[in-house]
Amino acid sequence: MTRSMENLSCRIELESFEGPLDLLLYLIKRDEIDIYEIPMAHVADQYCRYIRMAEELDLDIAGEYLVMAATLTRMKSRALLPRHGSAEEEADPGARLRRQLILYRTFREIAEEFRKNEEIWSEVYMSWGERERWSEDAGESIRKDRGCLMDLLKALNDLSREADEPPSQVIRRTTMTTGECISVLANRIPEDSKVDFWEVVGPEPVPEKVVSYFVTVLELVKRGWIKVQQRYPFSDIILERTERWSVDSR
Amino acid sequence: MILDRLAREIEALLFAAESPLSIDRLCGLTGSGEDSIHQALDRVDRAFKEQHHAIGVIEVAGGFRIATLRELGDVVSRLFEGRRPGKLSRAALETLAVVAYSQPCTRMTVESIRGVNCDSAVGTLLERELIRISGRMETPGRPLLYSTTDKFLEYFGLSSLDHLPRHEEIAELLSAGPSELEERDLFGNKGKTGP
């Protein structure tokens, strides 16, 4: 009974720890130990007791907890063994751990202070800023996420700092809509004969034009207004009207 | 209290701005000197207070903003119900604390101080734009470096990084870096126990 109660409390506690240092600090505080004079044997035993109980309860123990258990056990055995040879050989094994504990304890306190600030400032709403983001609908938040990813990619790109910057280029939006293109193509695809795609594009095959007309051709194929033939990859594309064009557009 | 032209200009600017406006910025925008800006900011805030307005002028993230009063947080939060991200977890807060004081720093730095894996905490903080990737460390593997953002300052109501709590004490604590300490251990000296 006592045992299971103890186990239960251990379980609750272990899950609330933010890692081995957190657990260690808890033990040190619970047993009122001076952080500068840590009795290694005692602390190692207490720590390992927790880990063992957690194992009994089949809790998933993160590797970090086990590493700390091993470190503590090693420090305990060193503390117990009589020292041979010169003192220089052995540094104060507690020094590093002590520093780690003090550093972690400090940041834990700061985190607590941050939490209080968060509490206070979450009740203050500023004009614009963050608020604007929450007030958008779900679709907008997806767009925002993409923005974040782009920011990251941009940062990464800046970091890799290639020797030569890629040439910059202004991409202008085409002013022609598919609808407009269709009416142009209506004049360029004759009613009763086949015509080559390039002929349709005209004398100045600038990229915008080629793309616009190609997209239009695809649209016309989708509508079933024209038939398209290409003998082999990259060869000429031959366009031909079908009857549907005149039927549908009538 | 009737506000003068400059104070009203500043009120309008703060209202319309999407991020905090610094004194410098306000000087540039209004064509007035630093001192008159400070005084005008004060007058704006005083006018709000005297007329028991629900908003006030606050100093945050290196500038000034108009913000609602805390006592009205309840009702305003209802406006954003369900859309507002939750409070940060302890893991995230601890990670953020380490980054804030040792920035720019790698994930390894955070992990060595916290003693646990910080992948997901770093991910959360990046997602919430409280930290950002600020570079790469020129060591093998070129690990990413993280720094806090202006949003971090706003989130915790800090006017600048110099206003982090216990700023100097922690800087001192961190300056005896772990590598330095390990070296000492190698040479058999006692580790540093205090400043």
Q: Please, could you describe this protein's structure?
A:
- The complex is a heterodimer of chains A (250) and B (195).
- With 250 residues, chain A is mostly helical.
- Chain A contains eleven helices and three strands, in the order H-H-H-H-H-H-H-H-E-H-H-E-E-H.
- Chain A folds into three domains: 105 residues, no CATH class; 30 residues, no CATH class; 71 residues, Structural maintenance of chromosome 1. Chain E (Arc Repressor Mutant, subunit A, Orthogonal Bundle).
- A three-stranded antiparallel sheet of chain A has the order 1-3-2.
- In chain A, a hairpin with a 6-residue loop joins strand 2 and strand 3.
- In chain A, helix 2 crosses helix 5 and helix 8 packs across helix 10.
- With 195 residues, chain B is mainly alpha-helical.
- Chain B folds into two domains: 74 residues, Winged helix-like DNA-binding domain superfamily/Winged helix DNA-binding domain (Arc Repressor Mutant, subunit A); 75 residues, Winged helix-like DNA-binding domain superfamily/Winged helix DNA-binding domain (Arc Repressor Mutant, subunit A).
- In chain B, a hairpin with a 2-residue loop joins strand 1 and strand 2.
- In chain B, helix 1 packs across helix 3 and helix 5 packs across helix 7.
- Chain B is elongated.
